[in-house]
Amino acid sequence: MKRHLKILEHALSSLRRRTGKSLAIIVVYAFTIAVLASVLFLTHALRTEANLLLTAAPDLIVQRQIAGRHELVPYQYAETIRQLPGVANVQPRLWGYYYDALTKANYTLMGVDQGLPAEWPLIEGRMPEDIAECAVGAGVAAVRGLRLDDDLALIDSSNIGRIFTVTGIFQPESSLLANDLVVMTTEELRDFFGFADGQATDLAVRIYNPREIDVIARKIKRELPETRPITRSEIVRTYDAVFNWRSGMLLTVFASALVAFCILAWDKATGLSAEERREIGILKAIGWDTADILLLKFWEGVAVALTAFLLGLVGALVHVFLLGAPLLSAVIKGWSVIFPDFELTPYLDLYQVCILAFLTITPYVVSTVIPSWKAAVTDPDSVMRM
Amino acid sequence: MTMQPLIQAELVNKIYHPKRPDAFHALHDVSLTITAQSVVALKGPSGSGKTSLLSLLGGMARPTSGRVVVAGREISRLPERFLTGVRRKTFGFVFQQLQLIRNLPVLDNVLLPLYPLDLGPGEMRLRGMALLEQFGLNDKASRRIEQLSGGEQQRVAIARALINDPQVLIADEPTAHLDNRLAEEFLEILQTLNEQGRTIIIATHDPVVFNHNFVQTVVNMHDGKITGTTSR
């Protein structure tokens, strides 16, 4: 133990004596780890966030498709589905996408009469209760510069401008789902989009027993062949796939940076300077064993790699969870004018951290020890000739 | 009374880079016996094989052929870890260029050979400070090596060589970079160490060293061979 401590102490002192080289490696190394960890943390946190928000989503969403095209769903379909054993509730939903030419952003317009789910709380104000009223997501409020009681002008399906008074703004916590929302009464929305009476955009279905969701989805499809039932787990999987695809793409983009770092690290770590070779020779000549030299180089590698890893990890945590990942969020969250702007809750996947540690620390330590081993097994006689 | 041989070299050859076009035959069938507590000077011009012989005698290199025996144990074929043990316990080295570690405090330089041993920091410090005091350097323990004069650095190198209390002190051209006064001072230190019972082996071409009265045996070398031995 004493031997380990003394050699570790000497390793740290060696690094201090080569401050320039040590710092250069640590900075580049930490930056690379910070980028990698940021992508992983952000993806993981977004996925977790989406999963949490979607826990309150309906068990099934039933859409209608004719010739593969999304069509409005007649209310009678809701009745048919309600009759199926195991179905707790069927709620027709009215919503639609709206392109706002003014801000070049897409909004989601939603008709709500019975209040929104509890996880979409209003930051201020109230839900719309009358015609010409609406509540908006934080993103919509931001791009249109809206505050409570301001007017929001939108063009309806008859190409006529309508003015809505903003009665509420949603909290940023729900912005992954509610950021681009404009909520109004159902009747108002029906009128706005020109939907016929007795038709909905889709149906939200609640099932008593979650294990029967797939069975009921199949039954709905059999009873109503024009429908497309989508389970909550399918939505979750879609979110996962999207985030995984985006993070994968980012990692691919950063792969070239990673390769550049690996080359630099390898060069820095493996290229023993004349000074280092001389020092190894001296240590051997004064009674250090090859194993002692390797232990010294091992501790040097561990100290650099661990410092860089921890700095990179902290950098990634600050970047993602404190600053909201300004360098990556546009790519991971989506290419939209209205980015969901919210503080991510720090979800750390220990498994992910361990994998990252293993993949970054181990190669560096190994690449530090191997060249030193080559130098350490040679006779210390060379030092006599320096 | 006949002194026991401490180190014996028997028909030792050393070839650098054997089987390569630039192979160099540094030592030719060299045989030498060094008794305990003696002072031996290996004398010869540059390239005569003094440093190569010192390396072999001190277990810093292995002969291409022949044997080196230290205290009755052949070290030329010892596995690396045992050879390190012999080197650590038996020999202390003072190199021509001193080979101290720059930017490291004096005391740490002296203590370096003790790091791989299982000694507590208190005991190590005690041993290091005692040696620095012996060489009048105790007030410079925390200075960096490059802040010392040439003579002081030489004394640090001796202190480091003695930290493991070795039987044999090996010095390679120790006065090459010292003026006469410092060389005399250095030789006085070696003489004291010899009087304390240590064997001293010096490679030198400096007359100040091999003419010094404390040197008991002068081994003349030329072209990798021993050409004669003078005992006083």
Q: Roughly how much helix do the residues of chain B carry, as a percent range?
A: 25-40%
**Element-level helix/strand string of chain B:** EEEHEEHEHHHEHEHEE
Radius of gyration of chain A: 30 Å
Major β-sheet strand ordering of chain B: 6-7-8-3-9-10
- According to DSSP, the number of beta strands of chain A is 13
Total DSSP helices of chain A: 13
Helix content of chain A: 40-55%
Kindly estimate the percentage of residues of chain B that lie in beta strands according to DSSP.
25-35%
What summary fits the major beta sheet of chain A?
A: 11 strands, mixed
Q: What portion of residues of chain A belong to β-strands?
A: 15-25%
What is the annotated CATH architecture of chain B?
3-Layer(aba) Sandwich
SSE-based structural type of chain A: alpha+beta
Helix/strand-derived class of chain B? alpha/beta
Radius of gyration of chain B: 18 Å
Quote the average pLDDT of chain B: 89
pLDDT < 50 stretches of chain B: none
What is the CATH superfamily of chain B?
P-loop containing nucleotide triphosphate hydrolases
Q: What's the number of structural domains of chain A?
A: 2
Task: Describe the SSE topology.
The complex is a heterodimer of chains A (386) and B (232).
Chain A: H1 2-17, H2 19-54, E1 60-66, E2 69-71, E3 73-74, H3 75-82, E4 87-100, E5 105-111, E6 122-125, E7 133-136, H4 138-144, E8 151-155, E9 161-170, H5 175-178, E10 181-184, H6 186-193, E11 199-200, E12 202-207, H7 213-223, E13 227-231, H8 232-270, H9 274-285, H10 290-322, H11 329-333, H12 350-376, H13 381-384
Parallel strand pairs in A: 5-10, 7-9
Antiparallel strand pairs in A: 1-2, 1-12, 1-13, 3-11, 4-5, 4-12, 6-9, 7-10, 8-9
Chain B: E1 5-16, E2 24-35, E3 39-43, H1 50-57, E4 65-70, E5 73-74, H2 80-90, E6 91-94, H3 106-111, H4 121-134, H5 150-162, E7 168-172, H6 180-195, E8 199-204, H7 207-210, E9 217-222, E10 225-231
Parallel strand pairs in B: 3-8, 3-9, 6-7, 7-8
Antiparallel strand pairs in B: 1-2, 1-4, 4-5, 9-10
